[in-house]
């Protein structure tokens, strides 16, 4: 099974191609500066235990142009790993904000897409770009199943005392103002690895995500109980 994973940002596309059940990607890369004439795509292919790097500088007016160039690299006889785009079985999309609607990885259909659009106001810098990547991928890979993985999903186990702010009730009920938590895929993975290393599935663990954004989470028995990042991905609580 060929699984293509996409992280569509405001001006970039990060991607990896997995040939399941192998856990290491056969191709990966980054298209950046989308919208400019000097956009850059850096594409990496694993072949015979060695990494082959291909880099192209070109004009990418939008995300569709960027993803089309990525597909061209994936199917390139030298730099690629596929004969044609129809070989991709599943496309996985990172979606930053799932609100209270999504607590797990979700197969994309029209109601789910409508819910993601409804969350644009909670993550205006992230969700619109994530959604654009979904729409482009649906056109380029019409045979593949499209799946969304939400940054907020892992933190849907927060107890009410942890996710509610000390604010008037209507701000929560009418405007959704609460702690959602982010970097959930990272916290979930790190917590699971730490528990496995300790040989203790009941362990109480503090996980720390450090990157372009940073957050911490308190995890017990694999469930998020508190987190340092709150209402949106651009403001910490």
How would you explain this protein's 3D organization?
The chain has helices at residues 63-74, 110-118, 127-140, 160-163, 169-173, 184-198; strands spanning 2-8, 12-19, 27-32, 39-47, 50-58, 90-95, 106-107, 145-150, 204-210, 214-220, 223-227, 229-232, 235-236. By secondary structure, it is an alpha+beta fold. It folds into two domains: 1-150, 2-Layer Sandwich (Nucleotidyltransferase, domain 5), CATH 3.30.420.40; 157-236, no CATH class. The model has no long low-confidence stretch (mean pLDDT 93). It is built from six helices and 13 strands. The chain has an eight-stranded mixed β-sheet with strand order 5-4-3-2-1-6-8-7.
Could you name the key traits of this structure?
237 residues; globular; Nucleotidyltransferase, domain 5; metal-binding; alpha+beta; transferase; Acetate kinase
Can you lay out the helices and strands and say which pair or pack?
Blueprint: E1 2-8, E2 12-19, E3 27-32, E4 39-47, E5 50-58, H1 63-74, E6 90-95, E7 106-107, H2 110-118, H3 127-140, E8 145-150, H4 160-163, H5 169-173, H6 184-198, E9 204-210, E10 214-220, E11 223-227, E12 229-232, E13 235-236
Parallel strand pairs: 1-6, 6-8
Antiparallel strand pairs: 1-2, 2-3, 3-4, 4-5, 7-8, 9-10, 10-11, 12-13
Helix pairs in contact: 1-3
Class derived from helix and strand content? alpha+beta
For the residues shown, what is the average pLDDT? Answer: 93
Q: So what's the CATH class of the largest domain?
A: Alpha Beta
Superfamily (CATH H level) name of the largest domain: ATPase, nucleotide binding domain
Query: How many individual domains?
Result: 2
Poorly predicted regions are: none
GO molecular function, one term: kinase activity
Subunit structure: Homodimer.
Site (Transition state stabilizer): 183
Binding site for Mg(2+): 7
């Amino acid at each position: 099974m060929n699984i293509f994973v996409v992280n569509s940002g405001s001006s970039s596309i990060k991607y990896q191609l997995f040939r399941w059940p192998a856990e290491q990607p056969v191709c990966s890369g980054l298209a950046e500066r989308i919208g400019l004439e000097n956009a850059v795509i850096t594409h990496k292919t694993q072949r015979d235990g060695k990494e082959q790097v291909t880099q192209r500088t070109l004009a990418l007016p939008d995300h569709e142009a960027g993803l089309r160039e990525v597909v061209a690299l994936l199917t390139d006889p030298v730099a690629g790993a596929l004969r044609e785009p129809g070989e991709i079985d599943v496309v996985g999309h990172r979606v930053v904000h799932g609100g209270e609607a999504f607590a797990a990885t979700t197969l994309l259909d029209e109601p789910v897409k409508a819910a993601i659009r409804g969350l644009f106001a909670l993550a205006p810098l992230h969700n619109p770009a994530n959604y654009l990547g979904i729409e482009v991928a649906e056109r380029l890979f019409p045979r593949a199943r499209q799946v969304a993985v939400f940054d907020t999903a892992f933190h849907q186990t927060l107890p009410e005392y942890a996710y509610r702010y000390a604010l008037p009730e209507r701000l929560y009920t009418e405007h959704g103002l609460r702690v959602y938590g982010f970097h959930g895929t990272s916290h979930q993975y790190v917590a699971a690895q730490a528990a496995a290393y300790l040989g203790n599935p009941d362990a109480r663990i503090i996980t720390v995500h450090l990157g372009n954004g940073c957050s911490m989470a308190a995890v017990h028995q694999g469930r998020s109980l508190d987190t340092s990042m709150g209402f949106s991905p651009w403001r910490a609580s």
